[in-house]
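User: I'm writing a tutorial on reading structure tokens. Could you give me a worked example: one chain, its sequence, then its tokens, then a sentence or two explaining what the tokens reveal?
Assistant: Sure. Here is the example chain.
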Amino acid sequence: MRTKAAICLIIFALIWTNIQSALCANIMLLDNSYLRTYAETRGFMLGRPVKAKPTPDGTAVLFLRATARQPQQSLYIFDIASGQTKELLTPQQVLKGAEEHLSAEEKARRERQRVSVGGFTDFQISDDSAKILLSLSGKLYVITRATGDIKQLNTGDKDTLDPKFSPDSKYVSYVQNNDIHILDIAMNRPRQVTTGGTESVPHGLAEFVAQEELARFSGYWWAPNSKSIVFEEYDAKPVETWYISDPQNPNRVPTPSFYPRPGKANVNARLGITSLEVHRTVWIDWDSKKMEYLADVVWTKNSPLTLVVLNREQKELQLLTVDPLNGKTTEILKEKDNDWINLQRETPLWLKDGSAFLWVSERSGAHELELRDRKGQLTSTLVGKDEGFLQLLDCAGTAFEGSVYYLASTDPTQAHLCTKSIKGGAASKLTSAAGQHYASFSNNHSVYVLESSLLSSMPEISVHKTNGTKIGTLPSVAEAPPVVPKVELVRLGGEHNFSACLIRPQNFEAGKKYPVLLDVYGGPHKIKVVATERNFLLDQWLADQGFIVVSIDGRGTPGRGRDWERAISKKFGSVPLEDQVAGLKELAKKYPELDESQIGVTGWSFGGYMSALAVLRRPDVFKAAVAGAPVVDWLDYDTCYTERYLGLPEKNPEAYKEGDLLTYAAGLKRPLLLVHGTTDDNVFFRHSLKLADALFRSGREFGILPLSGLTHMVPDPVVMEQLWTRIVNHLKENLPKGR
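And here are its predicted structure tokens:
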């Protein structure tokens, strides 16, 4: 009897061990070979041409490219006449074995621009097409195209920022020690243009919110005659100073950051025009107390010096022209919106003769492209609200001859290159393949480069004559993804007809129910559902772990008109989440393979906020979440973004309370994993720590994963591989059937 009992115990132990092994294999031992390759190739994008620019004379196209698994970019040139490509310069040729050095200021600029690669990250081409300007490790280099000679510019020992050619191609300008300098290329002799710049009051740099939220990365601009420079001076002393420390390295001094929060002080900015010949500065006179955001400065040949400024609430925009002799401004256009104004970075775009400019407005309820005369009066509407206008790209010719090029699509998942005569008439569509297309043109409009990212293929950059004839394709050395994502794009029924997508496992079995993973963003100015293969490569890996991955673009996302976007105004905590829930219900009606009892959610940044909000407010729908770099308390995010959508906190306190994750922290019922870079200078680590503290004090169970030393981006392949493994394990373990 004892022997039989012992045998039974042994058999039971073996069975239990096998069950445990099977569970562990299901939860822990994932096949990460694809994920590892995805991480090391940066989503199979390393090795593809980037930053492609035609030379102004249209004889060549310059571009940057890394190797397939080394994130260090070199400079290449594609010759239009021969169709041949050759390498012009590598970082190794310049560094000669030394390590690449990045100043704190350059690191911050790259973070704002979401640049995570090394080597050459940008370049400038002189207007005469004869020279190329590059920056590496804070030093500047000029290549003469005709001879191939490479000259290091005599900029001294201090790092340089934001280098540019002068319009006459004789000088290079840059910011050094918080002041603007120029250098005569022929003489290789520098001189300082502005004086007195400091870290808190620099000359020629763009402040944090200009870079992060207004997409303005420069703080100075050349006059078209190369005789003067317009520069920004901002005073950051009134702004709160936050410090970014690295807990893993307590011996390092924390990095100070001027970080303006809602309801608190922004920088005080002003613009000066400094003459290079008489060393005199004229200060531009505009009401910077009322219109405190400097959105853009435009000064091109034959056009007036033009400013785009916004008020604090971003409900009012002024377009101003400036008299350079005395700094006086004249308003030529005003835009108003009851919620907020969407900036259009491409406009004003002045015609070459300076007689008129192109402007984009949402006054009608959708984007429209307008032609306005020199005084700002409307001449004609070139692209109306029913034509799916998305973005202005370029303008060729004058008001009386020539064409305008722009992106348009009535399907928000796509963007197509179109052209239309400024005189009027029908538009011509230059692209047809389903996907996202973008173009840039040579100054003489003889050629353009077209970047196409399709649902059926990875991004490709081709070179075309202006009539659309293809000249060639810029060569790629990238690895091809080993799998093609199984993506289905759909428009759902229901009240709002949301755009959505599904990614099924490669071994999908019809008739079987699958847990659902919502890959969410859900916030302003970004869509998840796009007709591009590259966007779903990681989602396919996630699906292959046993999920059906879905994304839904609700109200607040671009491409569906003014009212659609403004529906989230002062309602971050409700409308975006309601739309995700409504979209999931519509998907479940249409696709019975979706298991509504097992829905997990993950996202980053605003998507991280949405993921945490989902389990806090709708535990009946969402059973587990991973929130990456979430904004927790909107009073701790920056002024420009937050006040645009939630208003001023003193006027709209309820909007901030409704959108605050801390409002709902005590009610957490579902498993939540917080992930955050400890040195994030955009969404500070403070956010996740505040939520963790509130959850802990409320007796809630949760997990937190600090990414040591990482910022808002996660470029490290090892970290990326381990992070997504952890995300999948958390979701598998905590969805009901996983438990």
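What the tokens reveal: The chain has 13 helices and 43 strands. The longest strand covers residues 594-604.
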